[in-house]
Amino acid sequence: MLNAVFALAFLLASPPSTDVSTLSWMSGRWAGTQDGTESEEFWTDVRGGTILGMHRDTKGGKTTGYEFFRIEAVPEGLTFFASPQGRPPTPFRAIENGKGRIVFENKEHDFPTRILYWLGADGKLHAKIEGMLQGKPASEEWSWSRRP
User: pTM surpassing 0.90?
Assistant: First the structure.
């Protein structure tokens, strides 16, 4: 009976929205500090069918990492394109897009295979990456407050 309930829920579930404007909650400048590393993300307003982003980590006054992002609707669905350290973009397709939460996935990528963003009840922007490293589940998580 339980399997039938899960099967019915799967059939009734609608595919994630491909409307980029549903991500306007991500727009703005976000920053936080974790374990001595200052991190910040900037997300543009949604315009022209895209939302663009940038992440930067600094420690001891030096940049220790950066990444450029683009989220847009393509024929395959809403897609997050990640370009860490200026490398060519890797696509992650949206598998969930709800109010204040989105999940992207690319099972073919080494690490991460999932990227999650959500707006917490505390008003903070949260992000998490998940996947397997050396045969074991691994993840990293960030939390940022809105900045002017």
Answer: no
